[in-house]
Amino acid sequence: MAFSTAITPFSTLYLPIRHSNLHISTLQSLPIRCCSSSSLSFSTNESSSSKLSTQFDLKTYWTNLIGEINENLDQAIPVKYPDQIYEAMRYSVLAKGAKRAPPVMCITACELFGGDRLAAFPTACALEMVHAASLIHDDLPCMDNDPFRRGQPSNHTNYGVDMAILAGDALFPLGFQHIVSHTPSDLVPEQRLLRVIAEIARAVGSTGMAAGQFLELEGGPNSVEFVQEKKFGEMGECSAVCGGLLAGADDDELQRLRRYGRAVGVLYQVINDVLEEKTMKSKEIEDNKKKGKSYVGIYGIEKAMKVAEELRAQARKELDGFQKYGEKVAPLYSFVEYAADRGFRVGD
After folding, report:
1. Which residue from 35, 54, 56 is spatially nearest to 44, judged by alpha carbons?
2. In the chain, is it the N or the C terminus that has fewer CB atoms within a 10 Å radius of its CB?
3. Smallest Cα–Cα separation from 208: which of 198, 218, 222?
4. Where are the transmembrane segments (predicted)?
């Protein structure tokens, strides 16, 4: 069966950063086709992987898992002295509308290889903490200077720049501490935990997300691919790999997860660039071109959609290597289709 459908007008499209509610529909397999600037078109094919993703109800899976993740996050960041810092930390980590993509991907990857969900929750929460910290700092006036996040005042808008900086600074080490102090030792050997901590540190550090933020500040038309790989691909890559590490995946499997997570993370942002281009004013578009922030602004919609198609194909190809795990790989396939269809910034 094959079909084509045009997405709703860009003025009414769901944009994750500006919306406060979780919007996840039951997914269908939607390979991207190159399209005109006025709409995004998709069609389906009948591969075994597409059957898995069409039969899997990501909405129910994700909604139920988010409930468990939120409970764990609430317990992980209790308010204590100094109250104002903890309140600022909780404001961003427990914000309504957070899709919890990093922890969901981590837990799903862990379960793919037979790992216990209880073993993954501490790392999953840590990923959400460090991701929230990166968003707090990303929104600061000295960075992207964004007064809103997910339709709500950003952390520094609500608590002030000083408290926002402190909240972000506190969340990074709290994430690592939470992994060490809450991961059941009978489920995850110490050596695996060390690799998980090293993986997160690499992803958010000076050669990872921080490098992407640096080059985004520096700007330039040749920086967009590097910025997107570092700012968006790194978190997807790290989340998937951490889940595999916790469950004892072998090196070849970890490399597949690494390539998969990176492809999905960048795929979202390329699609998001296409969608945002239609909502921006001409001055904003021109500013993004000068700063090298928009893939579409630099290369145009047609090339952006070709890149998105390649990323989608790459992500699915990596997952094809996990077919032996049967239905356990279905959630990971569905994430790809959701990113291609609507777009989700991994962890936005």
Report:
1. 54
2. N
3. 198
4. none
In the chain, the percentage of residues whose pLDDT exceeds 90 is 57
Q: Crossing angle for the helix pair 234-247 and 117-138, nearest 10 degrees?
A: 160
pLDDT value of residue 58: 79
Residue entry with tokens 């899976």: 61
Q: What is the DSSP letter of 32?
A: B
Please check whether residue 45 lies inside any domain of the structure: no
> Which tens digit of pLDDT belongs to each residue from 116-149?
999 999 999 999 999 999 999 999 999 989 999 9
pTM as predicted: 0.81
Rounded Cα–Cα distance for residues 157 and 95 (Å): 14
Q: Which structure tokens are listed for 136? A: 């707090």
Task: Fill in the amino acid letter for 83.
Answer: D
Q: Are 322 and 259 in contact (CB under 8 A)?
A: no
The domain containing residue 142 runs over which residues? 58-283+290-341
DSSP 7: P
Rama region for 343: left / alpha / beta (φ>0; ψ in -120 to 50; rest): left
Q: Which of 312, 269, 305 is nearest to 288 (CA)?
A: 269
- Which helix (H) or strand (E) segment holds residue 203: the answer is helix 190-204
CA dist 106 → 100, 176, 200 (Å): 10, 15, 12
328 in helix, strand or coil? helix
In a 3-state reduction of DSSP, which class is residue 242?
A: helix
Cβ contact 29:313 at 8 Å: no
CB within 8 Å of 211: residues ≥ 6 apart: 226, 230
| 267 occurs within a structural domain | yes
Per-residue confidence at 216, pLDDT binned at 50, 70, 90? confident
Structural domain includes residue 29: no
Number of domains in the chain: 1
DSSP labels, 30-61: --B----TT--EEE----HHHHHHHHS-HHHH
- Cα separation of 26 and 33, whole Å? 21
Give the model confidence (pLDDT) of 302-322 as tens digits.
Answer: 888 899 999 999 999 999 999
